[in-house]
């Protein structure tokens, strides 16, 4: 067997792996019909942890305060901010009696650790059902709380939501950021749908307080500076206790980074937590990324040498058509249809960026909570 024969058979295997992921995993979400849930009226504690976020709180907190839900409180956690974050919180609390404040001072054992601040906020929350978002997030409707709360029931104690980034016209970086966010959401929503939940995002995430205390909070990964959302969900989520919510009224929208350097720093923090996932999740995610990388690399080598080029081209086009179909239905659900036409380019760019981040994280540790 020649080297190119080996590459060709490897390419066929990689295409098969990609087809399996697109049909058996991502297709479960892409072709899923939305369901209507009966609204719940139990109490909800909305938890927002902020560090040096005075301006964002002034801008986005009104959209949380004005939610159309009969019984909710807002727990605002000031994590040792150096700006006017706590004064802004006090100003809102003086006007709204459903706002509760937690002012966290730096403690040597948990210096700069967001998980410590969140734990204090969760402890003072009066309701069993907790809904998390960030200070720079804006609910896209007044029904955000009611939509997320509707997916709780006797067995479902964790609700995974979606938090897109705001669109910026004529910005390639913005499209890349939103594509990466879309791809991540497709992964964690699809995996949850097939019974393998592995993460959630703190921009839009809900779970019962009992789940938190039954797991002893963040104690199993308290030494990991990031991961208050994905590592906790990776620890406690199961096929039985986890569900997903993707109605457009349940979305929260965040402000994206505007420079490539800032975005890379953010992604380095996010990716650094993946090594702490459960083994089965690490295997699946590694297989997914490796198959994406090898698909393009092997196709390029085979086409350059024109080795069985007709078969290679046919398989390449087949996989792209399948991907356009699956991603297309997903973008329609998640409101990101404008990035679909750039799919191959954005995928190649993102694969390159992720590879660079993996290498950089091996060389040096990423920075964490501000």
From TrEMBL:
Q: Keywords of this protein's UniProt record, alphabetized?
A: Glycosyltransferase, Membrane, Transferase, Transmembrane, Transmembrane helix
Question: Which InterPro entries does the UniProt record give?
Answer: Glyco_trans_2-like, Nucleotide-diphossugar_trans
Domain Glycosyltransferase 2-like per the UniProt entry, residue ranges: 45-179
- GO MF, one example: glycosyltransferase activity
Q: Which residues cross the membrane?
A: 6-27, 283-305, 311-329, 341-363
Keyword Glycosyltransferase set for record: yes
UniProt keyword Transmembrane, yes or no: yes
Q: Which Pfam families match?
A: Glycos_transf_2
Cite the Gene3D superfamilies for this sequence: Spore Coat Polysaccharide Biosynthesis Protein SpsA, Chain A
Xref: SUPFAM superfamilies: Nucleotide-diphospho-sugar transferases
The entry's family comment says:
Belongs to the glycosyltransferase 2 family.
Which named protein is this? Glycosyl transferase family 2
